[in-house]
């Protein structure tokens, strides 16, 4: 576990790294949406997602908002998480909800997703 953590810290210096247990790692970082707002993207080896704000489900939250209310977001994760990238066999699917980001941002997120996948499954 320590070895994987060290590899992730080196590979993703600008990301918050979180171990959720059971060997599952999550990377979290803000990206600008098409309107210039910070939106937290959480990437694991099998999905990239964003989270709705629990007070206003029409808005997505930033990394700092997540950290301010982390307990609430962990408790209600299944109702608030919105998948934007996922794997279907050998193909990476970009969900419709991902259209809040420019194409370049989505490519950046996708490259992190692939790199994390390679590290975890090596």
Briefly say what this structure is.
The chain is an alpha+beta fold. The protein has helices at about 1-10, 65-70, 70-75, 75-80, 105-120, and strands at about 15-20, 25-30, 40-45, 45-50, 80-90, 90-95. The protein is about 35% helix and about 30% strand.
Structure overview:
- Strand 1 and strand 2 (24-32) form a beta hairpin.
- The model has no long low-confidence stretch (mean pLDDT 93).
- A six-stranded antiparallel β-sheet has the order 1-2-3-4-5-6.
- The protein is globular and about 40 Å long.
- It is an alpha+beta fold and 122 residues long.
- The longest helix is centred in the C-terminal third of the chain and has 18 residues, at 103-120.
- The relative contact order is 0.18.
- The chain has helices at 2-11, 63-68, 70-75, 77-80, 103-120, and strands at 16-21, 24-32, 38-43, 47-51, 81-88, 91-94.
- 36% of the residues lie in helices and 31% in strands.
- Helix 1 (2-11) packs antiparallel against helix 5 (103-120).
Offer a few descriptive terms.
alpha+beta, globular, 122 residues, single chain
